[in-house]
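Box 3.1. Reading complex inputs
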Amino acid sequence: MNSTLAGSQCLHQRTGLNRKLLLGVALMGFTAGGGISADPLPPDATYRPLPTLPLDVVRRNDEGAKPAVQRRQQNLLNERYDLADRPMQGVKMSGGRKGVQEGVRVKLRPGSSWESLANMTPEEIKEQGLFPAGFMPLPHVKQLTGGQVFPQNQIDAIGDAEDRNLKRFDVDFDLPDHLTPEFPAPIFLSNRPDLGDISGGKLLTIRNYYAMTVGILTPVQIEGLRLLLTPFPQEEFNQTEDRKVAEQSLGVACLDCHANFHTNAAFHLTPDVRPQAARFRLDTTSLRGMFNQQIHGSKRSLRSVEDFTEFEQRTAYFNGDHVSATRKGVHLPDRPNQVAMMAQMQNMIDFPPAPKLLPTGKLDPTKASARELAGEQVFMGKGQCAGCHIPQTFFLDHMMHDLKTERFYKMGQVFNDQVALPDGPIKTFTLRGIKDSPPYLHDGRLMTLADTVEFFNLVLGLKLTAEEKDSLVAYMLTL
Amino acid sequence: MSRFVSTFILAGSCALLASTGFAQEGANPAGMSPDTPGKEAAMPAPEGSNNQDKLFVRQAALGGRAEVELSKIAQKKASNASVREFADRMVEVHSKSNQQLLRAGKGLNPDLPRDLDPEHQRVRDELQKASGQSFDIAYISAQIQDHQRTANLLQWHISMGQNEALRKYSMQTLPEVMAHLEHAKQNYAMLTQGAGSAR
């Protein structure tokens, strides 16, 4: 904006002459300019402003504010969720090293129960403010700054292996470890299904990938892997003063979020929305099974792994901002060579085995339990789940759907600087290997599979019984 | 910023303002101005403000004033009962909201013009000429655009503003403005028998 205008008001009041002059200029503008429109929003509603303070001051301020930032987010999480560590008996994630959390963790508003909500209309729930806050969009820990935030396990592992610092000075990861995926996640290859998990319980890094994969992958795949593990400068991790890491940083690698080609629950903000307060949080998606997926990104609907790969680097990993990315040193991978190799590598990553599933995607009745089979019935029938999560096509329909959750709450409320807005159409996620990738939904607003069942029960108006809900969870654990 | 800004006759006083006593609500803003007042690191004084705050008060006040003035015309001229009701509500709510805004932004010298901005002057002229059903549609269309603009302005200010009292104002006002927008879209769909606008 023109700051001198606001600041020089007193001066203007005394200078009538000046005013007439400006009036003349304005009228010229009026006739020459044709149509008049009101002032547009200022550029910082879309573009990232350049920093105005030196890095050491920014850092001091950010570090000083950090305890309050983290506390505020913890309060929000505690208000919305039961974050306790309550793993299910006898169920582990696919690597066999981490439990799967049980039960509904989204908290009800006082004066409501899941049954009472299921019997109300969306309008009634909205009017009475009874939509559980945990079903609403989940803010970034520091929404107004945003950017990528890594969990401590990734920060530690990369610090040890590569001496590269992924810790930000302004914000830390917010969810407790037991509500995130197994780390490091197992790796299953579609070109070598005979092997099973090839990770050996280790995290793939730029220091160890060769020894871990030579003899298993092709030269093209290994080169793709190298690129996926190579750090490049990004929005918060770079060498300029506009960064959120203490020392000049080499940057971030693709697999810093998609750790072992799965997800470590690192989060970011969507690139697709402005202004900043309106952007929604993005929980890192798993890269398993991408060979079967035809649209990529929860909103962008990119049509190939190649496009996604090329673009993700081009615009500073999720800022939708090629302008800022260019300033920090952008990596433009060569499409026919580098991009293709990175994509080929990603397309070799399979889901974990699902021994109870037949090739059709249906449960094998000789292997599945009665409860799991009952869950499948609900999934196909009363629950309507299979309408979008089609078992035969990897529980995908290659479509985006608008679940219209805003029918249940007042839009425009602000939580921790994030404006609660409709999500609009979002891609259907696969349910293969779903027990391995909490938290759920595009922004990670749901902590357990039981939460997702309550969510869809309400949003789709299903009126499932307690038994049907339990069996659906049991069914999803088999996928 | 618009080239018309400077032509307006300036209102308001040159007094510097006294601080309001809002507690620092949350975290520090994404970007602070170099001259941000505040004694401790990371704790900008709640009454501190940045350029975005100033610009916001001006734009929001302009929009709010247009809202009231155009809705007063609709109170007299609208033929549809639901549109008249909407206009009543706009006059009531936005008059109050404008006062809250000026109170929260007191001392930011928002450089307010006395008349409507040229775009809203044009809308006013159009509305004065229109009548019957076409008046209702013209009024509601203008309301949709204005509420879209205001919702975006508020969201931008929540993103970029610094002054605590003003940010609180924006956060409190936004859900209401978005509800008005929905209501205006429903009215439009009703008047035009198009389903397209209402969610």
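In summary: Chain A has two domains: 69-81+146-350, 87-140+354-478.
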